[in-house]
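## retry 2 of 3
previous attempt timed out at serialization; input unchanged, resubmitting
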Amino acid sequence: MRYVCAMFKFAHISDIHLGPLPQLTLRELFSKRITGFVNWHRNRRKHLFVNTLDLLLSDLKTRAPDHLCITGDLVNLATDMEIRLSGDWLRTIGDPHDTTVVLGNHDAYVPGAHDKAVENWYPFIASDDDPSQWPQDEHIFPTYRRRGPVAIIGCSTSNATLPFSASGYFSGRQAREMVNLLKKAGDEGLFRVVMIHHPPIRGAAASHKRMIGIRRFAAAISTGGAELVLHGHTHLNTLYWLRSHNHQVPVVGIASASQGPGGHKPRAAYNLFTLTGEPGSWNLICERHGLTETGDGVALDTSRLLYGAEPPQVSIPEAARML
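## retry succeeded, writing output
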């Protein structure tokens, strides 16, 4: 079926790091969480603000996107209370049908946290044909959601790691299943958006924060085909490219949705994508809206045509650059 799209708008935010930290018990601190706890009080709490997130979402609401994509790190130390409060927060921003979530490394900060987060946030994660409750004996990622002309494929690199490590892992099983989902969506003439937390680009993150399985992911994109990849993790506004069939796929990162002014990372922002056209001649505009320098509002930073009459011609790997 050839799908002709009048217009579909979807937004992308990431790295919520919902704060402030709840009071931790000694048992919770007796783990990798102690390093994150110290890092929060030395660094993150000075620049990550809830009111920044509120400003961003308030502005985003005025743009009336059809869907919201969140690429992980909703929490900081993945305590039970953080996971529960983040679930409550998700339910305040919209219906699960209109919001898709994948997990980040902070959502699986310690062993067992990943499953607790999936269970609590499941309505925002589940594939269209999944049961209402998470079947805990089964893998959930990659997920598949169809919204209008768009197929949203959610992947997970979320796994518990040792202290001072924030790496992610993309497995061979996920790669194989992702290829099948991408081909299915391609056969239906859908615009394929892949969500993942860690940037699937070599050198995009420091070695201790890298994604293990980058080559595997690139091969899956090349084999299955895709139109757009969204990621978080680095807290940077970036644009890279991967090859897929006879075109190149934009790989877009975004700053933390809670980053206030005055830090060494870019201020909070969201990307708004406007999709029109049809298979083979998609038109996609990406607008980045970011927190103002004074931190009291949100304004348009950049607008870029990612797909149009002339497909972008970009060399690899020199294509990596800041948006």
